[in-house]
Amino acid sequence: MRLPRALVFLGAALACGSGAPEGIVVSFPGSALGAEAELLQSQLERFMALQPEIRVVQQRTPDAADQRHRLYVQWLNAWADDPDILQLDVIWTPEFAAAGWTLPLKRFEPDTSDFFPATVATNSWRGELHAVPWFVDVGLLYWRSDLLGRAPRSLDELLDAASRERRVRHGWVWQGARYEGLVTVFVELLGAFGAAILDDAGRVVVDSPQAVRALEVLRNALDAGVVPRDALSWQEEQTRFAFQNGHALFMRNWPYAYPLMQQPGESAVAGRFRVTALPAAPGGRPSAALGGSQLAINARSDEPDAAWQVIAFLTHPDQMRERAERLGQYPPRRSLYAGDSLAGALAIPPAEARQVIEHAVARPATPVYTELSGVLQIWLHRALSGQESPEDALAGAAREIRKLLKRSGLAAETRDGMAP
Ligand code: GLC
């Protein structure tokens, strides 16, 4: 990063450590959900103590995935040479790689053999790795073990318990705001019904009868008051607060919420909840959406080698293990799930976590994912807020997504260049 820009960047940045005053500066806007910023800062300080010639500058970014995406696109569209390191959502890599914004990582000879294959696939573009998996997110169903004897074994059991619940305010809470989180909620319901957004051949099937059933479940739960109307503007944190304050029987959220809600001083439900995958409806299977973060290098970075060293350090098994222990975030390295190196760190036993990750449902891997998701967000939200029936909303979404894929040359008939 050249100095004048560095200074502008530093204005909004959380400078991290003292390090080399005139050495190499690497900028890194990382996410700060829950306790993420604190842990990242302490890991980067350790890195700078080992490599005093490199100074890493952190910058806070918005929590909401879509807002982070907009900010990144602004920077990269302007061909800015910073930030040097990019924290990518699992769904962004094809878009950023196809736009030429990320550096192919082959020159650093990354060893990917330990990573879950699905995480390597989602971070590759035209056969080349563009980002290193940092942590895996899987959508989990949190349930109050002090109020229920066991986890629901089917979606019907979940809905039944949630609608009969009178001891707490809400039966079920999830992210219903019009943003990326809503798509992950829907993707999980689709999985539970054996439905999908695109089929294996890349055809749009989001208007299938099972997909309509999946959306009806979400809409009916709102109409019946099982899910509060307020959830239509909730993201991850509002949902966590409702559950953490003891107001909900079930919650859908990512693993980061687990250690935060186990802190007795902070949480009314510490020791009184457990997690599982969303249970299946007839014809589907237990379902978890695949999410998570990856680290990539800005193709315009002036310091790609230093950026790579930071990435290699942060994705080393030691840092990943610490991230799991402190933040409850699941490592993408398979070797960490063997033996007892993660025992007690995750919300579920490591062997079970590994299974959930291996069966998690990915969102479509396409360079036009952001547009596709934007279309879906609008129609899903219209259906949930009662402006459209689920059937009409999904017909509308499918129509627009088909047009989008055709316009971009990515329709099923001309699939070249779709997934890597
Ligand atoms: C989490 C997931 C990410 C997802 C986002 C939606 O950050 O890791 O993949 O897109 O939540 O809100």
Describe the model.
The chain is an alpha+beta fold. It folds into 2 domains: 5-137 and 291-361, D-Maltodextrin-Binding Protein, domain 2; 138-289, Periplasmic binding protein-like II (D-Maltodextrin-Binding Protein, domain 2), CATH 3.40.190.10. Helices cover 40% and strands 13% of the residues. The strands form 4 sheets. A 4-stranded mixed beta sheet has the order 9-10-8-11, with helices on both faces. A 3-stranded mixed beta sheet has the order 1-3-2, with helices on both faces. A 3-stranded antiparallel beta sheet has the order 4-12-7. Helix 7 packs across helix 8 (209-223) and helix 14 (369-384) runs antiparallel to helix 15. The site of alpha-D-glucopyranose has 11 residues, from helix 7 and strand 12.
